[in-house]
Write a structure and sequence with these properties.
The protein is of the alpha+beta class. The chain is built from 8 helices and 5 strands; from the N terminus they run ααααααβββαββα. The chain has a 5-stranded antiparallel beta sheet with strand order 2-1-3-5-4, with helices on one face. A hairpin with a 2-residue loop joins β1 and β2. The radius of gyration is 18 Å and the shape is globular. The two termini are 29 Å apart.
Length: 202
C-alpha cells in the first residue's frame, strides 16, 4: 500500500498548517530567522491556490490522489454542496473517527491502531482505516485491547476528551455512536473546499 513519507513539519510549513493542528507538539522549525527574504513569495496563481487547498486536505487526512479523487466523485453525486460532502466523507473514515474519539494523538497513529485491529464497528472487528461509518454505527475499542498498557494510559484522556457533536460518547463501554453525519460547522479544518471543487471542475 502506498503511503506519504514526506517530513511532517516541512509539509505543514509548505501548506500553512500548524503542526499542533496535526497533533504534533513540541519544538518545531516552522519559524526561522535565517534568510528572512526567502520566506517572501510571489502572488500565487488561481491554480496554485486551488492545488494547495487540495494538497492540504489530502495531507491532513492522509489520503493519496487516487482515493481522494474517488471521494470527490462520490461527493459530486451526493445531494448538497460538493465541497462540504467531500469533507464529510473524509470525516467519516474509521481512522478519523478513532482520532476524534481521542484514542490516538494523530490521524497517522489512528490509522496504525485500526490496521492492528484494535477497534470494532457494531461489534465486528474492522482493520480498514478507510472504512466509512454511517449513522447508527458504534465504534468501540476491542475488549481484548483494553488491557494493553497504551490504552490503559489513555483512559483518563479519552474520558475528558470533547467529542464532535455528531459522535455520542460512551466512556463506560470505550465506544462512541455516530448520531449524525458531520456538517461543515463540525469540521475544524481551515480549508476553502470550494477551491478544490473549482480545480476538479476544470
Amino acid at each position: 500500500m502506498a503511503k506519504n513519507t514526506q517530513p511532517i513539519v516541512k509539509r505543514c510549513k509548505a501548506l500553512d498548517i500548524s503542526p499542533a493542528f496535526m497533533g504534533y507538539s513540541g519544538k518545531t522549525k516552522m519559524d526561522t530567522i535565517r534568510n528572512p527574504k526567502g520566506q517572501m513569495r510571489r502572488k500565487q496563481s488561481e491554480y496554485a491556490l486551488q492545488l494547495k487547498e487540495k494538497q492540504k486536505v489530502k495531507f491532513v487526512y492522509g489520503v493519496l490522489e487516487k482515493q481522494f479523487r474517488m471521494y470527490y466523485e462520490k461527493a459530486v453525486k451526493a445531494p448538497g454542496i460538493t465541497g462540504e460532502n467531500l469533507l464529510s466523507i473524509l470525516e467519516t473514515r474509521l481512522d478519523n473517527v478513532v482520532y476524534r474519539m481521542g484514542w490516538a494523538k494523530t490521524r497517522k497513529e489512528a490509522r496504525q491502531l485500526v490496521n492492528h485491529a484494535h477497534f470494532t464497528v457494531n461489534g465486528k472487528k474492522v482493520n480498514i482505516p478507510s472504512y466509512r461509518v454511517k449513522v447508527g454505527d458504534v465504534v468501540a475499542l476491542r475488549e481484548k485491547s483494553r488491557g494493553y498498557e497504551k490504552f490503559k494510559d489513555m483512559v483518563e484522556v479519552v474520558t475528558g476528551a470533547t467529542y464532535p457533536k455528531w459522535l455520542e460518547k460512551d466512556v463506560a463501554n470505550f465506544a462512541a455512536k455516530v448520531i449524525a453525519m458531520p456538517d461543515r460547522a463540525d469540521i475544524d479544518l481551515p480549508v476553502e473546499e470550494h477551491l478544490i471543487v473549482e480545480l476538479y471542475s476544470k
